[in-house]
Amino acid sequence: MSSPGGLETSEMTFWHADTIGSNLGGRWIVPPQASGSAAIEVRGVSTDSRSVTPGQAFVALRGEKLDGHDYLVQAASSGAAILIVDRPEKTSAACMPGGERPVAILHVPDTGIALLELAAAWRTELAHVPVIAVTGSNGKTTTTRLIETVLSANGPGTASIKSFNNRIGVPLTMLRARSTDTFLLCEVGTNAIGEIAELAPMLRPTITVITSIGREHLEGLGGLAGSAREAAQLLRHPWNETAIAIVPAGVAELDGELGDTPLGKAAGRIVRFGESAEGELRITEIRASEAGVRFCLAGSNWFEIPLIGHHNAINATAAIAVGRQMGMKDQVIAAALREARGAEMRLERRRIALSAGTPPIDVINDAYNANPESMLAAIATFKDLYGGQAARRRVAILGDMLELGEHGPDCHREIGDAIAGSGAVDLCILVGPLMMFAAERIRKVILTDRVIPLPALDEAAARSVAGMLHPGDAVLIKGSRGMGLERILRAVETART
């Protein structure tokens, strides 16, 4: 027998109102007995009143712009079984929405902490399910998708959706997991010291994957050492004595941090991967093409993935390492990787015809986010694909890399040097004040009239950029998420005839 949420009978007690109240140590404003929900199984958790489904617990989170307590009536009217709040003064209208039965309301000191505590309690219930946590400066979402593809060949599991990688998204991923899962896969992000330290005791990973250590969020993390220190927090809370970590080889800052963790102090608990000779999983050769990348591991056969970019061979190697740790054979792993699909706006390739009967433009949309390493990787990929195609016009549309603090100007000059030295860009459109530092370097090689600066990007500017593109162009779009460069693609789609 299983519950409506798909849980086994032995775990059904966890998803009861009384058990949730006990796990959170809260005070009932409207007890389950008064609402008639004491015997009703709670069917998961939501923090978004717009997507609440009948039987869920609604956690009223408070953010910079929105307060979930303003939407209690909406959540209750949508069928929430419990409202979890930390502002009891906001609950009176939710006690009897629309004249219907009262909804159980649990008061806790802090709803954000309550969400973490509930996920931690559920993690204990899922002791038999391997938990894989993926963090790092670059490649988190792509590597998470690759690991999901590999492990799904072995059985069903739960994985982060989109980029649910913060103190809200990670516990929500945990709370979506089911007892029948063969794995639970969580992407874990950070942009400031201390964020992973808050999540690690809840996750207690069976396998920790660190994809890379690079210059991300320098404003909040302070540099490579800070990025390494933050990522290593996951290794301080392993599930048990058999937990392992899969980390990039040859990163001095990370190696210095690992030695001070329980996994780093125990023999055989760290597996290193990458192109460095120090790695147990060492990539010996990578062949990149428009169809994807093929690569070989030392002492192993070739693997291939239909994702462009030299660096995706490294991401895929991390997925291979996870698959092997989960007892999978290389043949099964290789077959799964051949069916992999990339994440949206991460080196996503599109062909768009601007008008009927004309050659389409080839677009590489990598506009989800950017830091120096990912920007350099995107430029290298663009060069690999189009560097030898001088007959077509090659256009780079680059937006500011944000959250670099005082390092911002120099990092953007470095990108300018990379563009100037690539020999693969004929027109460069630069968006944002920081990209003006890149423009200084690019203009030394590319004619000034082919370097177009835009202080900002609004809808009118997006349409203007779309109008600069010609049939047959090869186009790279790359910038930080806050720059919203995807608006250019929307403008292209709207304008085409």
Compact overview of the structure:
This protein is α/β, with parallel strands linked by helices. 34% of the residues lie in helices and 19% in strands.
Overview of this structure, please?
- The structure is a single chain.
- By secondary structure, the protein is of the alpha/beta class.
- It folds into 3 domains: 9-111, MurE/MurF, N-terminal domain (Udp-n-acetylmuramoylalanyl-d-glutamate--2,6- Diaminopimelate Ligase, Chain: A, domain 1), CATH 3.40.1390; 126-337, 3-Layer(aba) Sandwich (UDP-N-acetylmuramoyl-L-alanine:D-glutamate ligase), CATH 3.40.1190; 348-495, Mur ligase, C-terminal domain (Protein-Tyrosine Phosphatase, Chain A, Alpha-Beta Complex), CATH 3.90.190.
- The protein is built from 18 helices and 20 strands.
- The protein has helices at residues 17-24, 32-35, 72-77, 111-125, 140-152, 169-176, 195-203, 218-221, 224-231, 252-258, 262-265, 311-325, 330-337, 372-386, 408-422, 435-442, 459-468, 486-495; strands at 27-30, 45-46, 57-59, 82-85, 104-107, 131-135, 158-159, 184-187, 207-210, 244-248, 270-274, 281-289, 292-297, 302-305, 348-352, 361-366, 394-399, 427-431, 451-454, 474-478.
- A 9-stranded mixed beta sheet has the order 7-8-6-9-10-11-12-13-14, sandwiched between helices.
- Mean pLDDT is 90; it is low at 1-7.
